[in-house]
Design goal:
The structure holds two protein chains of two kinds.
Chain A lengths: L6 H32 L3 H5 L13 H8 L1 H32 L7 H13 L4 H10 L17 H12 L3 H9 L4 H9 L4 H17 L2 H6 L8 H22 L8 H32 L5
Helix pairs in contact in A: 1-13, 3-13, 4-7, 4-10, 4-12, 7-10, 8-9, 10-13, 12-13
Chain B lengths: L2 H4 L10 H11 L1 H24 L5 E2 L5 H4 L1 E2 L3 H8 L1 H21 L1 H11 L4 H12 L6 H12 L5 H8 L11 H29 L3 H9 L4 H26 L6 H7 L5 H4 L2 H11 L3 H30 L5
Antiparallel strand pairs in B: 1-2
Helix pairs in contact in B: 5-17, 6-11, 7-11, 8-11, 11-13, 13-17, 16-17
The chains are: A mainly alpha, B mainly alpha.
Chain lengths: 292, 318
């Protein structure tokens, strides 16, 4: 049913498109500026000539990144963390969510309450830190994998999803003599792909992006994940910037190009998978809005 | 038809008494065994640290351990509330949270409403793709972007300021800009993502309501006021209460990246102080007291929020 739009509505529609275009530009400009800077020469960066297009286009900054042993080591650590960490997350979350989704399970309410309670009453940081230290996990790869093994919010999402599956299906499999483990892996998991993809995405992005856990638990530079390396790189840049600001002396060796190229490379994995996953994560974000 | 009666025999009929329970557990031992790793994780990594919070009432010494450290009662809590330097943390935390509530909370609602009014689906999808993206950038990378805009030497904004004939401003090192930068970058990163939930709520409003309103001659603004807003109000209320419940949790991940010695005055919050003084400085008891205070307040606010939510929208948070 087409209804003729009034003048006011037409003005609003134009205004709306205009505002949202501005919003998009505000999101994109910083990103494009960094990409442009990463392909520009150091001279152009120091002279503030770069806006949205590279000046003196070259790949020198990327050559520096590629040659940077520290960068590749931290990159490798992060990839390993994403793979192992997410695998642990998935196994733990699915194993826990499946029994808790069974409405007939005795003690179910008590167990769920025990999990939910930790969402609304957080354990303070320091006792957690002392525990990790006493367990001998400090300065090990596992300090980044085991403490966040189950995301409580993700667990609740998964339980809610499993509850929506028809119990008849599992019952039929039980009659056929399938063990509960096989039912989980061969029946529940294959028909739960929407939630599984969502959880994979949430967990892996979290592992890839966070630095604060590593800041707390890792002091050995060889174990640094990429984000912690970036943290130090950028905090240093900020400090140097302040120094330059005070003395108004330009340092010849501007590491800025290197920083920009590092930022771009660190973002590439996310930007590459983003279009493929967009469909799923929106579903996932909406799952979060549904309740039991 | 009752769903339970449609199932050919539920796995186990509930029998009361410990014998029945034992039988049930044995029959369904596979499920309980599956649950074991999760429960072990829960106890070790959530409940043991929770009980370890007693060191907030001790003069905890890492070498003596929990069992042999001396008890000091509420000493650290008293310090927390009386030392001006510590009170500053609470003020900073509350102020940043308050500004976030004021500016960052309505932003996604506004964005969702604007997106919802778009006629071109192609344009809508393009905008969505762009605004969701920053959610997936880490805070270190967002800081990198911010640095390139605000840096005193090379920042884009400073270039603009200079070209207009003003002095360059050292945004990132001045305490007075810190809170605005935190709120601003938070809006930049999360507004798109947070809008999804409101878009879902908007999609849930029945189109027949709009059709009826159109027939009654309501224009789009009136439809917004009388159909759209009431339609997403429950979502707004629940998220608002949830946000208030987390008022002391600011996410060290963001703030610690932006913080430096020159901005402690306005930017040092409970979480960043806990890291610096607790983990780096070894003052375990004081910072545990701060953490416990945070947890208790958060818990009480959450319970309160849940009550309010049930009262206002008929739905609880948990």
């Amino acid at each position: 049913m087409a209804i003729k739009r009034s003048l006011g509505e037409k003005i609003f529609d134009v205004f709306n498109v205009f505002v949202l275009t501005i919003v998009c530009l505000l999101v994109l400009i910083p990103v494009i500026h960094v990409i442009a800077g990463s392909f520009s020469s150091t001279q152009a960066l120091i002279r503030n000539q770069v806006f949205l297009l590279p000046v003196d286009f070259n790949l020198d900054n990327y050559k520096l990144v590629v040659q940077n042993r520290t960068f590749w080591n931290t990159f490798k650590n992060s990839v390993l963390l994403v793979v192992v960490g997410t695998a642990v997350n998935m196994v733990m979350t699915l194993l826990t969510a499946y029994p808790l989704s069974k409405s007939y399970l005795r003690g179910r309410k008590f167990f769920i309450l025990a999990f939910v309670f930790t969402m609304i009453f957080h354990a303070p940081l320091i006792p957690t830190y002392i525990l990790i230290r006493n367990l001998g996990l400090l300065d090990t790869f596992w300090a980044l994998v085991i403490p966040p093994a189950i995301g409580m919010f993700n667990l609740m999402l998964c339980i809610t999803f499993f509850r929506s599956l028809p119990e008849e299906l599992f019952e039929a499999a039980r009659v056929d003599g399938m063990s509960e483990y096989r039912i989980l892996w061969q029946i529940a998991v294959p028909i739960s792909m929407p939630i599984i993809v969502t959880l994979l995405l949430f967990y892996s992005v979290n592992h890839w992006n966070s630095y604060f856990n590593a800041l707390i638990y890792i002091t050995d530079r060889k174990l640094y994940p990429l984000q912690l390396y970036l943290y130090h790189l950028l905090a240093e840049a900020n400090a140097i910037d302040n120094y330059r600001g005070v003395t108004t002396v330009n340092l010849d060796t501007s590491p800025q190009g290197l920083q920009l190229a590092t930022i771009v490379v660190a973002t590439v994995p996310i930007v590459v998978v983003y279009p493929f996953l967009q469909k799923h994560f929106i579903k996932g974000a909406m799952l979060g809005s549904l309740k039991e | 038809m009752d769903r339970a009666s449609a199932i050919p025999a539920p796995p186990e009929k509930r029998r009361s008494g410990p014998a029945g329970l034992l039988k049930f557990v044995v029959r369904n031992r596979a499920l309980y065994i599956m649950l074991l790793p999760g429960l072990a994780y829960l106890v070790i990594f959530k409940y043991i640290p929770l009980s370890g919070s007693v060191i907030a009432f001790q003069n905890f010494n890492i070498f003596k351990g929990i069992w042999h450290s001396e008890w000091v009662g509420f000493k650290w809590f008293e310090q927390f509330f009386t030392y001006p330097q510590l009170r500053r943390l609470l003020v900073n935390t509350l102020l940043i949270s308050f500004y976030q509530l004021l500016f960052a909370f309505p932003a996604p609602i506004l964005l969702a409403l604007l997106l919802n009014e778009l006629r071109s689906m192609v344009f809508k999808r393009t905008v969505q793709t762009i605004v969701y993206l920053p959610h997936f950038f880490s805070w270190t990378i967002v800081f990198g972007f911010t640095y390139m805009i605000l840096s005193v030497q090379t920042g884009l904004l400073n270039n603009l300021i200079e070209s207009l004939g003003f002095e360059r401003i050292n945004f990132l090192q001045k305490a007075e800009y810190f809170r605005s930068i935190i709120v601003g970058t938070g809006i930049w990163k999360e507004t798109g993502w947070s809008a999804i939930i409101f878009l879902a709520a908007l999609a849930g409003i029945s189109p027949t309501l709009y059709e009826a309103a159109k027939i009654d001659g309501a224009n789009r603004f009136q439809q917004l006021l009388h159909i759209t807003l009431p339609g997403i109000m429950p979502t707004i209320v629940i998220l608002l209460l949830l946000r208030i419940g987390n008022i002391l949790d600011l996410g060290a991940e963001q703030i610690y990246m932006f913080l430096n010695e020159l901005t402690y005055k306005t930017g040092d919050v409970l979480d960043t102080y806990t890291y610096r003084i607790g983990i780096l400085g070894g003052q375990y008891s004081l910072t545990t007291a701060i953490g416990l205070f945070k947890s208790v307040v958060g818990f009480l606010l959450m319970v309160l929020a849940n009550r309010l939510s049930k009262k206002i929208t008929g739905e609880g948070l948990y």
